[in-house]
Amino acid sequence: LAHQKGAPEMEEEYLRPAEIAAKMKISRQTVYNWMRSGALEYRRTGNTVLITPAALEACIASGGKKREIAQ
Q: Which of 13, 17, 49, 58 would disulfide-bridge 31, Cβ 3.0–4.6 Å?
């Protein structure tokens, strides 16, 4: 099938805090600290926390520091 204009995008891949901690060999608390500080963007669905790989890359690139928003 050819990609049609206006067709829904493929579902995004998500990671959970425990998966990130295991992959990076850091504690889950570190992941939650990044989330709380605003360094790591996430989505919450019920009790589930979901993080995109792009958000994780941005957090790593910032050194786990809160990203500044340009005004």
A: 17
